Structure to design on (654 residues):
């Protein structure tokens, strides 16, 4: 088993080389925006999870780097195109690609990034390629479906909680699950282990998204690393908001819908007022309860995995972060 | 060898089934725009070429349909995203996807289409998958590069003829070449035959694009199937225009640049005046000469192919269309 920290450093080294090579490829107008979006960083969670999953089954994880690159490229491609669709101007503290290079460049460089993600799979063992391409392309399509639901929910008056959970499964969890499963599969793990790691990824991924929703309301801007209250300002129908709509008093519900209907408001005012309504409704507790539920499911799945218990430590810690950051 | 007509009908039957199934997949907001863009038609040249190339080497071309679907999906994906980037409102006589469904849908459904193209490759023989994915992803990336050059040329004052030819090689010819090569490869053709068919595709593809440029100036709207003079109105730096800029008299060149600088003009006036300048310069003849050159190269390549001469008839006719439509 290799630690996340060790894997992060080693992936980052490899990936930096890839970025350098992308940056110097012609035509520069196509490839520079790709390098720009990749250089800005990100936590590289998905490739690290893939490499770690592989390390549970083999000491030799050299074969996993191309697929890890596939996942990181694809994840960043989705962010790039999502930012166009969401009219998001800032990504990781710097101008989004469509702001910096224009919308056409963002569309086309994103397209190229998605293709490059598939291209990296050609560096995998040809005998494993069919399975890898099936899993990855299915996952990639599911992520598009998740984004479609997300965009569509914004226009709707009502979204049910099961609909929301399915959306975040597609938009967020499946790529985490796919990363773990691909890592294990490349390392030669048996089908059952691959499936369990996939399920663990889904459960932990949903817990993480619920945490993200919670942090948008209650997080500390410095440690969260992004602006607080963004979801509130955009009336994002997150679990915490849907639950507030369900649980709050009639008066608070009217007040919340009133805030949601305003087009002209002081963000600080709206964030504070909506946060108070959320708190009074008990939706914050409800969200923590659901996070805990998915966290426990994830640990239960991990328990079934047929490897030494001590080998499960990193994944247990990974899932555990969900609880530690939410007070 | 199977005739284009026969293959077109049989591909169309299979493809219709795929479109039906895409159309009824949830979420409908993601998949309906895809079905819409595919149903509008198109000549299905690339899948037909692929199936035909396969039929030169095997009587059993059933294995080739998934890859033919890959190519047709990917081609239509590029049109869909190109229409957003070019602000083109009409495609094949009906509103473009971004006009009909909105820009966000067009971006996301296009992304899904590109992914589905890769997904269809998983239905190919796993033993051949690595080679197919390498060729296809390289080609897909080259098409993005071609589109990038095309967009960039619009902003430039000067484009050289070699730069233009490289752009159309990437944007148009490589997908035709890739289709032929994939068909032959799946059918078990030897490396040399695959390479020759690829080269034939590049040469014929360039000839076809030059023909398209010529038809935009001199074509008959009814038989060409699209509006004449579109390139002229948009100042597209096609070979025929670049050659006109090179060969026309000083007076005509000034007049042409004057037309190109106008933002407010009657399209009919501009098309007629520019056409006259093109005709006087001799660029039309120059374009036909270059088309003929690539046509002859294509036939020369076809000659080297180690199959019965009678089997080459359809591809010879295909390349020959370049000359027959240009009078």
């Amino acid at each position: 088993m290799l630690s996340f920290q060790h894997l992060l450093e080693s992936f980052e080294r490899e990936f930096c080389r890839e970025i350098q090579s992308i940056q110097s490829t012609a035509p520069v107008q196509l490839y520079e925006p790709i390098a720009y979006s990749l250089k800005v960083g990100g936590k590289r969670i998905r490739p690290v999870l893939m490499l770690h999953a592989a390390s549970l089954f083999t000491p030799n994880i050299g074969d996993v780097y191309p697929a890890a690159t596939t996942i990181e490229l694809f994840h960043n491609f989705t962010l790039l195109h999502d930012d166009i669709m969401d009219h998001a101007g800032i990504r990781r503290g710097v101008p989004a690609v469509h702001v910096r290079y224009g919308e056409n460049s963002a569309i086309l460089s994103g397209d190229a990034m998605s293709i490059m993600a598939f291209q990296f799979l050609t560096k995998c063992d040809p005998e494993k390629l069919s399975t890898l391409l099936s899993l990855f392309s299915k996952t990639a399509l599911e992520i598009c479906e998740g984004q479609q639901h997300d965009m569509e929910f914004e226009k709707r008056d009502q979204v049910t909680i099961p609909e929301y959970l399915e959306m975040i499964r597609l938009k967020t969890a499946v790529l985490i699950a796919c990363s773990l499963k691909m890592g294990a599969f490349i390392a030669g793990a048996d089908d059952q282990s691959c499936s369990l790691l996939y399920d663990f990824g889904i459960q932990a991924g949903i817990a993480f998204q619920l945490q993200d929703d919670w942090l948008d309301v209650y997080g500390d801007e410095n440690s969260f690393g992004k602006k607080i209250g963004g979801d509130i300002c955009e009336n994002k129908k997150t679990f915490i908001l849907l639950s507030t709509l369900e649980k709050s008093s009639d008066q608070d519900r009217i007040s919340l819908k009133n805030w949601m209907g305003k087009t002209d408001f002081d963000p600080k005012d709206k964030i504070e007022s909506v946060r108070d309504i959320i708190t009074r409704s008990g939706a914050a507790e409800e969200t923590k309860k659901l996070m805990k539920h998915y966290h426990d499911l994830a640990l239960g799945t991990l328990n079934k995995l047929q490897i030494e218990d001590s080998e499960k430590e990193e994944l247990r810690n990974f899932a555990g972060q969900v609880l530690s950051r939410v007070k």
Observations:
- The first strand of chain B starts at residue 90 and ends at 91.
